[in-house]
Give the backbone structure.
Amino acid sequence: MKNFSLMRISIWVYLALFFSYLLGPLVIMSVTAFNSPGFPRAAPWECLTFEWFSALFQDERILNGIKNSILVGFGTVVLSVTMGLAGALMLTQIWPKLRATFYTIIIAPILIPGVVIGISTLVFWDRVNRMFGLDADSFLSNGLFLTIIGQSTFIASYCMLVLVARLQRYDIGLTEAALDLGATHAQAFRKVLLPFMRPAIASAAVLAFLASFENYNTTTFTFGEYPTLTIELAQKVRYGITPAISALAFIIVLLTVFAALFNEAHIRRKELVAAARKSATVDELESGKLRLPGFLSSNTAAVVLVVVAMMTIAVVGTATVYSPQQCIADVKEQKRLETEVRIQELRQRRADEAARRAAEQADQAEQEPAVEATPKPSNNSGFGSVFDPGALQDDGADAPEEEPAKPGNNSGFGSVFDPNALQSE
Amino acid sequence: MPRFLKEYFNRNGVGLGSVMLGLVLFWTIGLIILPQLSMLDFSFRPNLPPPEIGGPKDLYTLENYKYLIFGPEGGSQDYNAVDLRVFYRTLIAAVLVTIFNLILCYPIAYYLAQTKGNHIRVLALMLIIPYWINEILRAFALRIIFGETGILNNVLVGMGVFDTPFDFIRNDIALYAGLGYAYILLMIFPMYNVIESLDRNQIEAARDMGASWTRIHRRVVIPYAKPGISSGCTMVFMLSAGALAAPQILGGPSSLWFTQLIYQQFNDNSDWPQGAAYAVVLLVTCILLVLALMRVFKVNMGDIGK
Amino acid sequence: MSAGVGVNLEDLWIKFGDFVAVREANVNINGGDFFSFLGPSGCGKTTILRAVSGFLEPSQGNVLIGGNNMKGIGPNKRPTALIFQNLALFPLMKVWENITFSMEIKGASAKERRKRADELLDMIALTGQGDKLPSELSGGQKQRVAIARALCAEPDVLLLDEPLSALDLKLRQHMRSELREIQKRVGITFIYITHDQGEALTMSDNVAVMRAGVIDQIGDGKTIYNDPNTAFAASFVGENNVFRGTVKKVIGNEVMVSTNRSGDLMARVSTFNQGKMKEGDDAMLFIRPEAFSLAPVGTQGDHFVTAKVTKEEFEGNVFNIFMEGEGGKEMKVALPNLGQSFESHQGQPMTLEYDVHNAVALPAGVLATE
């Protein structure tokens, strides 16, 4: 038993470490999106600011990139899902001797490095272009076309895998029954097979869109005049990092979390509805008055979703009115003062250094009458008489005015300027 | 019409059948086979400006491949040490990343697959979410962390481990961490799928007979999970060797990746045939290595699938 | 819906590569008949059904429905409706949508379809269940929905592929009579395939007995039972005791068979084989369990059989007596329970008598294996 709990603990520790490795970078990046310094950092934390988000929304190139990404995404989804579906159907019908070869060919794009797919697409369609005698402006050289084609080559493979998994559970008898009852092949496909495949087609479409959206290796060769968001990001990350990128990342993380929660809530709801239908009586079903469980009941994901949504709205609301100016000004002042302190400390150190050196010199020069053993305060320092208390008193600085009022000094610099303090040394 | 074609159209209808066949042919031939052949062919041609392509100067040549091995003609060295070293390093690094990933992810995959409970669902979700985020952004996040002013250096300097910030990037540590990070999901998923189908009773029986955990894993789980393991390793290896974003963002000056060489050939040097040749070399090497691995571990193509 | 569309199979051959699934089938099914194809699994009956419904093109020969050659006509254009063995109800459609699918194909409005669905639901005694999904129905209910769906398509010929095999005994017996009733009411031709000879006999007007792609016999139940053409038909349909031997003498419509273990026995030659059996032929003599009656022990003669009793069973309406038979297989005798007293003859020889007319002699052939 003892061994067992030791194992349990180590498992949990391992899991904790693993997930912090996995999620840590994202958390930190999200934090940098809200921090004011111009280079993304999480520590030290300076000011909460939303300015990077507005910078993000004003960045032309990023917005253009998003537009292109969406266009490419849609095109890729349409092409990949249809090719994947055709491939999946063909796979189930092709005779066994050819099946292995066919399968290898359509799985291959997953294994081929994305870079190679990008290049081969570029080279091939350039050649086709040339063969037809078209020039560089033609449709076949269009960045959007090439990117969609290039991405679909391997994304269709992923789609096919998803679809085949579902297709294997399909009873071919259903298509035959439809035909037998008078349907044409197209009708049987549309009314019986497609509805059955719908969940898989939806998954494949989402998969295709996400894969297309975030693709870099292939797109980087084919984008032509139409850079996608990923391409723009890569440029920025390599040549000009600002927290605006963190802001974008944070938004994407948030959207992802939303999507995941929404998906969970949806699945859970379907489960609840199916269970309710099972235990319903015929009357309830017929009249459509079946009492379905409430939207939020026993659905944790839905609750979390609503909470997060509300929090986001609240934050966005504050963002529009919140101005970090004051904070930034404060921070600037703080920094200035800190720098001053450091300078002062540096001066003090140098003064001490100089004095020490002077003492050494005095020791070394034994012929000369012994100078005062006690080091004279800072008269030989390179700063002149700045530290001379006497000099300051004549200055009429703030410090002496405060002096009679309070024994200690409440200026930010402690008792440096206090002549008494120095003299008592 | 040959018999099988006739049966095919009987089964699917003429309209639908033609559409299906058309799409499949377009995909396999037009998108998969022809472009690769085209690239292969292109790599054997000299680098000509567009008007001269197809003209008399456009003859087959091995010069692009020679360049990879021997360097520029009349150059100072006997071998193209720089490029060859990059190639070699890329492959080794990919292998190391794969092994690192395997060791890192195996326990997780096992735990997720064999334990029950609602928290598994949540953990799986937490596993998937990072991967919906752009790989560029993920590399970027790591860059921030590993940078001179990043959290990692802040913590280490603060704790007094280092006096000045340690340059993770120059030392390739950032790159390896980044590559390891990038493909975790792809390693876990296939292993998880396979291990999940392992009957719990087998493990219980082994425990019952007094086997230690190491033995159970070595003799029961791992042999069973071999298809998943090889699937994951293949994917991670291919993706690491072919990675472009992580090296570009997280790599220091000394850790050039072979894919970056290809990128340079295409974009900076405008030497497409050269780039194509490099790409062919990369592709062929990766495929050969993977096939060799599959042979060694006695796994076949059909096992690779999610 | 026309009552009385016949189906003809002319010289039908169906081959898959080298394998012959159906060999030279010639069948005439009258319009309005309930016709069954009976045989063990793998005998080719499903193949014939698929050829009639249009999912298979025969290698040779013709399928005619209502006198029209169906060559090259796809399943969606033939006037047939098929009820699949696993029913193939569309899982994502409600019951009423399933039933009226054929109307939906033709473009009928939802209102019309709903109305027709309600009528059919009444007919199959599932009133009000139209909004359920197939997964929410029991086996018997699904069965009836499949029938309603097929009937809604108003076919000339209804094809049924072992529809009752997945049901439990009680339900099966109930459905037998229901199906027969529906057929009589609707009046269309039913072609039914099964391996259960009880179903075939009770429901059909005519039966085709099949084995390994060959149709052994076509006839009504009584004929097949009393006058089988082949040894297979004799042993597959109902229970039968077989005596192997050689033909000793041919006397008109009867033969004397010199059996291996029971001496010389007389039997009638089945109609199909009359004139075909000669002296010296290998023969099999078949006597049904119920054809025997008790005789004084030890009586000899050409219609007496003596053997040792191995087991006795009382089944309520009959006494089942099992006796040593040849080849290790037991002989079965079924004596009706008429209230007579019955002493056990366990382990002792018993003599049975039978009427020669009730014994059938056939050329030796393959028997049905159980």
